[in-house]
Amino acid sequence: MADTQQVDAKAERKVARLAKQISAFSKEHGGAEGQLAYVGERGARIVLVGEDGGWGDLMAPSYEIAEKAVEKSGITVHEEFDGEFAAKVKTGPYEWTRMAGIQVGGPSND
């Protein structure tokens, strides 16, 4: 029982930390919306798009933790990263250069 309580406490701290980061992003960008994506053993990706078009992402160790974090933060969550949602993202020269380089086999700068 003690091991379960430790795991639950650790998960709740992670939820709280992620929710705080999501809320900070939202505040910085005039509001935010998100989308969750399961990425296998690595957990879940939380993609955030601000009202100003800024974007970012966070990783959660599980889909359940990601769900709880976005719920706690109060942002709107989309089922899919569809065209309407994706159109809110503003990209700059860095992103276009990076995407073009990857598409044509250029350096990845990693």
General description of the model:
The chain has 110 residues and is α+β, with helices and mostly antiparallel strands. It has helices at residues 2-28, 63-73, 83-86, 93-103; strands at residues 32-38, 44-50, 55-60, 76-78. Helix 1 (2-28) crosses helix 2 (63-73). The longest helix is centred in the first third of the chain and has 27 residues, at 2-28. The chain is globular. The model has no long low-confidence stretch (mean pLDDT 85).
What gyration radius follows from the Cα positions, in whole Å?
16 Å
Overall mean pLDDT score? 85
Gross morphology is: globular
- Helical fraction equals 40-55%
* Percent strand: 15-25%
Largest sheet: 4 strands, mixed
Order of SSEs, N→C?
HEEEHEHH
What is the total tally of β strands? 4
Poorly predicted sequence stretches spanning 5 or more consecutive residues: none
Which strands sit side by side, in order, in the main sheet?
A: 3-2-1-4
Question: Structural class, from helix and strand content?
Answer: alpha+beta
Amino- and carboxy-terminal Cα gap: 44 Å
Number of helices: 4
